[in-house]
Structure formats: structure tokens, C-alpha cells
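So, can you check these C-alpha cells?
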Amino acid sequence: MRLRWFILSAAALVGAATTAYALTSDEIKAKLQTAGYTQIREIQAGKIKTFKAVKDGQERSIIVDTRGHIKELQ
């Protein structure tokens, strides 16, 4: 019983920590600008933050996770 309580408590803490560290759209746009992207616009895609932006003269599709890691989609 204690193990079950511990697992549920740990899962709740991890969920709260993930939400607490999630970046806002404005923070993500600032991070993308710092990385050299321009003309940044958010695309509605559910829970995953998806963006279109221009870098080196080419439009790119980008996803950004809750910790701010940037990944260009192919």
C-alpha cells in the first residue's frame, strides 16, 4: 500500500514539475529569434507547440518541447 502511495505521489510531482517548467509561446518565440529564426508564427497542433519560421531564407517547420528544445521537422 505504501509503495502504491509513493508511486502516485511521485507521478503527481513529476506532472507538476513538467507543467511548472513549460515555456510560454512568447518565451519560445524569443528563444527561436535568438536561434536566428524570423517571421515566427505558431501553428495550432494540440499539446505540442509547432511553429513555422524562416531561417537562412527558407521556411521551416519547428517543434519545441516543454523544456525549450528546438527540432526542425523534415
In short: Residues 3-20 have pLDDT under 50 and may be disordered. The longest helix spans residues 2-20. The chain is about 40% helix and 30% strand. The domain at 23-74 is CATH 3.10.450 (Nuclear Transport Factor 2; Chain: A,).
